[in-house]
Amino acid sequence: MSTAKTRHHHGDLKRALIQAGIDLLEEGGLEALSLRKCAARAGVSHAAPAHHFAGLPGLITAIAEEGFDIFSKYMTDAINAGEQTDRERLRGICRGYLQFGLSHSGLLKVMFGEHGLGVHAPRSDNREEAEAYLILRGVCAPFVPEGEDPHIVEAQVWSLIHGFTLLYLGGEFGCTDAPIEDSPFEAVMALIDRIGTQATG
């Protein structure tokens, strides 16, 4: 009796539905996401999601929360992969941010609210989103002048890399399949470096 439905007898149905939603996003974008399609992908009845989510908005919120966990891992891995100097850690988080967007553009749209879905995504009181922001805060901290509001540097770095990521995904800089090093990414890094120089100079 090894049907798809038997996989979810041990409390993993919610996670299976979230993963199904992520898969649908990655394959077909936001328009491909629905409770019925998630249920079919997870191998359960179309009524099953109602036991775990308050409709599609509830599923979107759960997907966004999972997205922020994956997002945090991309940034942390990129930071850890480089030299452990303040400046290289700052550059690393930007590289991880862009790589996440390239690998999970559907998740990025849900997490940050494109097409109005942001009203369903978690905000600053959510653990997953707060954790992602704390990673950003940590690498920005060495560049905050003494006595200054850390949000200023954080907002500058976040705005630059998030804006660049959206423009890059939108094809504004040409082919998104090219290596990051062959994109205008390094131009953005020069601006990031300038923020750091101004803050510490």
Automatic annotation (TrEMBL):
Keyword Transcription regulation found: yes
InterPro entries the record matches: Homeodomain-like_sf, HTH-type_TetR-like_transc_reg, HTH_TetR, MT1864/Rv1816-like_C, Tet_transcr_reg_TetR-rel_C_sf
Residue ranges for the DNA-binding region feature of this UniProt entry: 34-53
Domain HTH tetR-type stretches: 11-71
Top-level taxon: Bacteria
Entry keywords, A to Z: DNA-binding, Transcription, Transcription regulation
Protein name: Transcriptional regulator, TetR family
